[in-house]
Amino acid sequence: MNIIVTGATAGFGEQIARDFVAAGHIVYGTGRRMDKLDALRAELGERFVPLCFDVSDTKAVQASLSAIDLASIDVLVNNAGLALGLEPAHRADLGDWQTMIDVNIKGLVTVTQIVLPFMVANNAGTVINIGSTAGNHPYFGANVYGASKAFVKQFSNNLRADLIGTRVRVTNIEPGMCGGTEFSNVRFKGDDDKAAAVYTGVEFLTAKDISNTVQWVVSQPWHVNINSIEMMPTAQAYAGLAVARD
Ligand code: NDP
Ligand code: 8X3
After folding, report:
1. Less Cβ crowding at N or C end of the chain, within 10 Å?
2. How many angstroms is it from 244 CA to the middle of ligand 1?
């Protein structure tokens, strides 16, 4: 298979790319950091094809993706994304909000809109979006990040509607707390101690858990569409509703 994995320079995307390459597939791995992409290419060989672009730069996405044979793409994993900040809405940074919207929403729909017509023309393809439990459940400081993942959830559902009658599948994977990636380092803007504290004493999900789920979704027979999978570490659960007291 030929697979596009956005955000392959770290975390989930890197593990997903590694596992698909190890299984003999060709991965077009994307990210903004060319040095990371080059290192993966050197390690994984020619089955890993680096594509360097910012998903929020529509022209760059179009230029990069139009240079590959999009008709050959079997799977698109829309993974690139980020959270910025954990402040309450009234103290949050507007620029951070706009960046999350640009990457998690606009970037994801841009890549999808470019690849999808080729999958429909082939009457075959699988789109896997990486959502989040934050798209399903509010938590303090999740404001625009959680809302962006709620968009990804409903976009996935609405793609399913539009694609009815085709053999193009769409899945939204919704992980909870997952450590060992750069997610919290990015969220806390390089404050690595604060990032590490998020995971202290918790047996969190790993990128391998997410990659295993992606592999399982893709391995289902064509008539099976996994609509969504919400997954959490056993150590995490839904919490109670908030109450303000005098
Ligand atoms: P990482 O920070 O480890 O990896 C994020 C990846 O996205 C990197 O490869 C990064 O590449 C890429 N990326 C970020 N911004 C851009 C951009 N503007 N253009 C192109 N690529 C970009 O995070 P995770 O692996 O933990 O997260 C991956 C996805 O999973 C995200 O969508 C995240 O929201 C979601 N998620 C994460 C959870 C967690 O607990 N870790 C739980 C649930 C969902 P580069 O910097 O090179 O551009
Ligand atoms: C990442 C998981 O709980 O930090 O989407 O929002 S969480």
Report:
1. C
2. 34
What number of other Cβ atoms are within 10 A of residue 240's Cβ?
5
Counting ligands in written order, the one closest to the CA of 79 is 1
Helix (H, G, I), strand (E, B) or coil at 230: strand
Instruction: Give per-residue pLDDT as tens, 201-225.
Output: 999 999 999 999 999 999 999 999 9
Q: Is the CB of 114 under 6 A from ligand 1?
A: no
Q: What DSSP state is assigned to residue 135?
A: G
- Closest by alpha carbon to 183, among 117, 84, 105, 86? 84
On whether the pTM is more than 0.95, the answer is yes
**Candidate from 4, 16, 30, 82 with most ligand 1 atoms within 8 A of CB, to mutate:** 82
Contact 152, 109 (CB under 8 A): no
Question: Reduced to 3 states, what is the DSSP secondary structure of residue 76?
Answer: strand
Closest residue by CA, ligand 2 atom 5: 132
Residue 157 CA, distance from chain mean position: 16
